[in-house]
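Tokens as discussed.
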């Protein structure tokens, strides 16, 4: 936040220049640290998946003596997801679905065999069992496994199911071991990038609103696009942070100090509040000008407020930069000093006069934003 030392006017100009020249990713772009990093992560995961599938096939074929262990490489892929926690969850759900399907195939195969009646019973019962929500994304395995067991195992499905179960166990364990032991994935960079982009979108919106104080017509034209970008960037940041936190669970690398910071809950809470306050400022400024008899914002107050919002925008960018953000008392004091000037101008307005209510509301909102910035 070095820019705050340069004074309110210089800071406002610098902030507007930076905001207008920024080359941030569009809100429709996946939240990540860039396409290079994305493809690096995907390539690493694909290589691990290929290694796990090949290893599971070799182990099941030569160590366990299975002639055609096609379930082993399929099950191995379940252990190689983008997070260790999800790999564990999907693997457990797959095993549960497979076991339920096998348990269904054995009695139906012995009693009805692989005919029309047996298939109908398998599909009906399998789909009902698959409705159990704890099976998650692997619920379809119940019906698939039961059908395979019935059609390929015939009237004696137990032998077939037993061999397939050993292949599944080998595949799942192999995939999990590979994913946990070989560079277990962390998703901190995409979260860092998404949070920083969220802060930048808030800051850009505040700069536009600062211009809207003196040019409300142009502000009204630009605001809908910024409001949409705010929603998109906030949604992407929340999803990226959830993914990052999940990637830390059951991850051996989570205990190792990382260069990339972990998602800061206090910063995320502050950005949530700042997004809400930014929208409230927009409503106060733009809805006021849209009324049939708008209350004009006095020039003295408007000038101070149009200088304050870019200063707040610069502070928001610094807040969202989790790697470099630190709270400095002097810089926050400068920001608070500018807020004091705004409050003074609002207090000088005649009570009940033109623009008094709007000015008081805007002053309160900026004070709340500065307080949120200072808390983390």
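Sequence:
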């Amino acid at each position: 936040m070095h820019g705050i030392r340069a004074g309110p006017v210089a800071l406002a100009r610098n902030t507007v220049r930076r905001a207008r020249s920024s080359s941030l990713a569009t809100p429709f772009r996946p939240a990540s640290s860039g396409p290079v990093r994305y493809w690096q992560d995907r390539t690493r995961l694909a290589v691990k998946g290929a290694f796990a599938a090949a290893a599971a096939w070799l182990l099941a074929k030569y160590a366990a003596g299975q002639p055609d262990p096609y379930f082993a490489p399929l099950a191995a892929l379940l252990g190689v997801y983008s997070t260790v926690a999800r790999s564990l969850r999907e693997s457990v759900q797959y095993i549960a679905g497979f076991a339920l399907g096998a348990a269904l195939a054995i009695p139906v195969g012995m009693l009805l065999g692989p005919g029309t009646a047996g298939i109908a019973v398998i599909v009906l019962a399998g789909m009902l069992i698959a409705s159990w929500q704890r099976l998650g994304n692997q619920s379809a395995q119940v019906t698939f496994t039961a059908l395979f067991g019935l059609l390929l195992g015939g009237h004696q499905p137990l032998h077939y199911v037993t061999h397939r179960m050993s292949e599944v166990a080998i595949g799942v364990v192999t995939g999990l071991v590979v994913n946990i032991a070989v560079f277990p994935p962390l998703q901190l960079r995409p979260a860092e990038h998404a949070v920083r982009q969220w802060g930048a979108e808030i800051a850009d919106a505040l700069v536009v609103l600062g211009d809207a104080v003196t040019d409300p017509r142009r502000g009204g034209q630009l605001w809908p696009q910024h409001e949409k970008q705010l929603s998109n960037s906030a949604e992407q940041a929340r999803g990226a942070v959830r993914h990052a936190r999940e990637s830390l669970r059951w991850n051996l690398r989570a205990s190792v100090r990382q260069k990339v910071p972990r998602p800061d809950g206090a910063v995320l809470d502050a950005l949530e509040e700042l997004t809400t306050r930014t929208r409230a400022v927009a409503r106060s400024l733009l809805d006021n000008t849209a009324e049939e008899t708008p209350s004009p914002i006095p020039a003295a107050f408007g000038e101070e407020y149009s200088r304050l919002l870019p200063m707040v925008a610069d502070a928001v960018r610094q807040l969202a930069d989790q790697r470099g953000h630190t709270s400095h008392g002097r810089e926050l004091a400068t920001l608070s000093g500018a807020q004091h000037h705004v409050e003074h101008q609002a207090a000088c307005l005649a009570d009940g006069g033109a623009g008094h209510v709007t000015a008081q509301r805007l002053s309160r909102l900026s004070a709340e934003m500065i307080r949120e910035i200072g808390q983390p």
